[in-house]
Amino acid sequence: MQLVRAELPFIADCGLSNCRLNGLPVISEEEALERILSKVLFLPPTEVFLADALDRFAAADLFATIPLPPFDNSGMDGYAVVAESATRDPRLKIVGEQPAGVSKNLSLSTGEAVRIFTGAPMPKGADTVVMQEETQREGDFVRVRTKQISEGDFVRQAGADLAIGQQIIKRGDRLRPTTLALLASQGIRSVTVGKRAQVAIVTTGDELVAPGKELHAGQIFESNGVMLAALVAKADAKLSMRRHCRDNFDALCAALRDATQYDAAIISGGVSVGERDLVREALQEIRAEIDLWRVAVKPGRPFLFGKREQCRIFGLPGNPVSTFVTFLIFVRPILLRMMGAAEIGLLRARVRLGHEVSGDETRPHYFRGELKDGQFKTVGRQESHALFGLTRANALLRVRPQEKLVAGTEVEVLLLD
Ligand code: AMP
Ligand code: MG
Fold first, then answer.
1. HEC profile for 20-43?
2. Which residue in 133, 96, 134, 136 sits closest to 116, CA to CA?
3. Residue ranges making up the domain that contains 140
4. Which ligand 1 atom minimizes the distance to the CA of 319?
5. Domain shared by 55 and 189, yes or no
6. How is residue 174 annotated by DSSP?
7. 281-298 residue pLDDT tens
8. For 23, left (φ over 0), alpha (ψ -120 to 50), or beta?
9. Are residues 286 and 258 in the same domain?
């Protein structure tokens, strides 16, 4: 199947095809992801200075125009010599000094040495550098005190690290601190990258109170907003709007109208089947298209995906673990793809299972657990409201419907950090 790409292997074997769960239709996790990915709008590339390019995604391949090192130079403070000559007669006449940063166009021959410093261009005729610690200065002469000189010692050859024409960046590469340094070493000041996705977050629920406010009986503090904002930031997208909305139809329509002005709108809560779950109706009211609703995945069944003009809309179930898991499996890859990333899956590791784990009857089940010393063990309560348990997890294990895994089985887990 098309989605069986290396990046998202966990979706490849989702046992369920479209069917009904609890009387309502659901679609498979695999199909949901396929459908969502097929609706990705690539954001236009933009040029940014290297200082602003960290964790952005290259919009084009780039090739070296300058070799690294750019010229033969010394790897040590010491003396440039001819190896064969210095081995034969260790007393050499100093014929000049070559600092780093200028080329004095020096040259030397048999019986001669040039005082040289790290990074300085090699004098013509020299093939080796003897480090300072292995020499003794004797007026205008230097004595090499080691017998072990091999031609080429401490000489950094032009192009040995990187040759002209070699590919330095592939389109879709994440720009890391080291890749930025490599671009700078090529004399490049700015780079073309995918635009950062602008994301809106709307949390919903009458029972929710902002942290810092007074809590009345039956209320809980709103916690998905800050988690989603952090997840958006970690996905290298830009949070452009964040609002909490009561379960009020008009207020929700207004919030969703505003949220859908951006590249992606993430809604938490209100997508299930309860009386106060108004998100679907509100989306219909503002003429958004709902592409899919209800996916066979645990946690996260009420997940919804739709669009309104350029905006991709994600309705995540409000239970914190469901919000977290559905963000990672459905939202994160799409945000990354929009921004031009080549790698859109979470990092994976092959590890041993610490104890027996049984999958759900009908849905693929994402277990939250701790990966330690090469072993994965579930951690905390595995219900979808159990936020504390979730905070102790550093990996997810996807177990297929009805699959029973015994302790010691080799499994692949998704890394959270
Ligand atoms: P819902 O998806 O709106 O039916 O909410 C499911 C459960 O998640 C309920 O217990 C809600 O109180 C809880 N919940 C919904 N949104 C949030 C939120 N933003 N922060 C914390 N808990 C939430
Ligand atoms: Mg709700």
1. EECCEEEEEHHHHHHHHHHCCCCC
2. 96
3. 73-156
4. 8
5. yes
6. B
7. 999 999 999 999 999 999
8. left
9. yes
Predicted local distance difference test score (pLDDT) of residue 20: 67
Two tokens, residue 180: 């930025």
pTM: 0.90
CB atoms within 10 A of CB 59: 22
* Domains identified in the chain, total number: 4
Please give the average per-residue pLDDT across 249-272, as a whole number: 98
Mutate to test the pocket of ligand 1, among 208, 314, 387 (most ligand atoms within 8 A of CB): 208
Residue 326 Cβ < 6 Å to ligand 1: no
CATH assignment of the domain containing 393: 2.40.340.10
Residue 297, CA atoms < 13 Å, CB-side half-sphere: 34
Residues with CB in 5 Å of ion ligand 2: 205, 269-270
Please classify residue 77 by burial: count the beta carbons closer than 10 Å to its beta carbon, then call 0-12 exposed, 13-18 middle and 19+ buried: middle
Q: Are residues 135 and 101 in the same domain?
A: yes
Residue in the structure block whose two tokens are 């080329």? 103
14-58 pLDDT, tens per residue?
334 456 666 678 999 999 999 999 999 999 999 999 999 999 999
The CATH number covering residue 188 comes to 3.90.105.10
Of 313, 338, 363, the position where a domain reaches its end is 338
Same domain, 231 and 323: yes
Distance in Å, CA 326 to ligand 1 centroid: 14
Q: Is residue 1 part of a domain?
A: no
Q: Is 4 among the domain residues?
A: no
